[in-house]
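Input sequence (143 aa), recorded before submission:
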Amino acid sequence: MNGSRVGHGARERLYASTTDTFDSDNDLDYIAIEYALNGERVKLTPAEKIHAAQILANRGFSDKAIGDRVGCSASTVDGWRANGWKPGPAPTPQPRQKRPEPVCGEPRMYRRHLKNGEKCDVCRAANAAADRRYRLTGSQRPA
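Predicted structure, token format:
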């Protein structure tokens, strides 16, 4: 059978350096970096990860793809880029906003009434309307 499957076959190989294999000033092992650039599993030092991420970013790879190849998260790659490709503090996660309290006339409030053993016709009608919308459109949100 002549043919090829998706993802198999010749693929461009990325090279980190053409002459050196080690940079003692920056503690970089270019052979390990080259393996990481090509998606092979290898343990990298933080300096090697940053160097490999910078090479991949210059080639147009996404933060997620870079993180997958060098073994870190996309937010870490974004932090390195924002810090001038130097190690720095870990990026702080965005605080989650609290959901507003439900008010009568919302399906959420109907469920709270049921939990507390209360009866509320307004919330019951709102829940029935949201259920109808969900069955008809696949969404509980009003149009």
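Checked by second reader. The longest helix spans residues 121-137.
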